[in-house]
Amino acid sequence: DVPYWFDASPTVLWSEYDTWQDVVRWAEPMYQAPRELSPELTRQINRIKEQHSTPELRLQHTLQWVQSEIRYLGFEIGEGSHKPTHPSVVFQRKFGDCKDKTLLTVTMLQHMGIDAKPALVNTNIRRGIADLVPSPSAFDHVLIHAKIGDRMHWLDPTKSDQLGALEHIHQPDFGLALVVDSDSTGLIPMDSSVNQHRPKLVEVTLD
After folding, report:
1. CA–CA separation, 6 vs 13, rounded Å?
2. What CA–CA distance (Å, rounded) separates 17 from 29?
């Protein structure tokens, strides 16, 4: 009878990391978008740029392309448990886990000039992560934090075919996230003001 994010059991935690910034420094080299890409991936990036003129549309259609064309499948053993695969490899083989799909999407967006970064989250304890010691093992998922103008977008390329307009794409609020960026100083709240719930009223008439 406690909230999902609260652990009522006595717990001892230890870590090799002093701060969440240390965790960012651990993650940043692995999630760095590569400059050199395969010709095939470069052509796909240019195709989206040519077909869509605004950053919003490019973001929307890049997300939808990765969701529909890259299967969600991962081999999470060895370094595959924490290190994403090169985007060109993911593009060529057409599958990847959350790390792979996120880095592929972020790479495509950055090559279009869109400010997009990976963001680490915990989908189970959510904001309860603030009570944990800083550590990479505190997270179980990675998604995208993108900024266009003054608007923030939280997006998940592992979801299936979110075909609506960008402002209508829903992203669950996992409470707190750690954005993998050199300017990141700690956990930040997932602002759901953009990817907000959009309730619909359904009236059912029974004869």
Report:
1. 15
2. 16
